[in-house]
Amino acid sequence: MKKSRFTEGQIIAALKESEAGAKTPDICRKLGISSGGTSRSKDSERSATTRTSGSQP
């Protein structure tokens, strides 16, 4: 498994900020990551959701 650049606490804090309504570019700027990486993860989450929901009748 690939080692994460961020601690579990940082990831949880970023997710909570996002759920609270903070804009993704602001969260990315705070963590020092590009927003391109976030769109890539959203795409993988979207495809994972499609795969799981697609198997249901």
Automatic annotation (TrEMBL):
GO terms for biological process: DNA transposition. Pfam families: HTH_Tnp_1. It comes from the Bacteria. Residues 20-57 are annotated as: Disordered. One of its GO terms (molecular function) is DNA binding. This is Transposase. It comes from Vulcanimicrobium alpinum.
